[in-house]
Amino acid sequence: SIPFIRTSDINNWEINLDSHKKTSEEVYNQFKAKQNIEVGDILLVKDGGPNLIGRTAYITELDTRIIIQSHIFQIKILENRENIDSYLILHLLNLDIVQKQIRAITFVQGTISTIGNRILDVKLPLPTDLSKRINISNYINEIIKNKTETRKKIHNLSLNSFDD
């Protein structure tokens, strides 16, 4: 079965793949081309509880076989010569100054809060120095690598892990 990722499954730059909501291989095959979830995509919660809006996750090789609900933005960074990549954007989206902007554009619709297309009004404090962009990206990349390795280790643990 395939994890159906909801807003509450996104936290600390990661996706909770142990979500209780699952979908079939058939449904996955129906949506996988449309959603086109790829390593390096960033997920950003756009609707839901005010405490969830603005949370992000980075798609690693462990996360590509998923379906995401419509309350989540999927951000793809296009190839460019400006040293702007998904690691840099992930960092910028999680800065206090950006999270405050996201809170400021959030409005309540009935029982649900949403940022909708106002995400386009959020200004990211992009460093002008290209080498600083590279340094930030390398640092965030290292964090993502370490988190991914830890997730793999946890996933591979079994009752027999420590037998001689």
From TrEMBL:
Lineage of origin: unclassified sequences, metagenomes, ecological metagenomes
Q: Name one GO biological process term.
A: DNA restriction-modification system
This protein's record includes keyword DNA-binding: yes
Annotated Gene3D superfamilies: DNA methylase specificity domains
Note whether Kinase occurs among the keywords: no
Molecular function terms from GO: DNA binding
Against InterPro entries, the record matches this protein to: Restrct_endonuc_typeI_TRD_sf
This chain's protein is named Type I restriction modification DNA specificity domain-containing protein
Native organism is: marine sediment metagenome
Alphabetically sorted, this entry's keywords are: DNA-binding, Restriction system
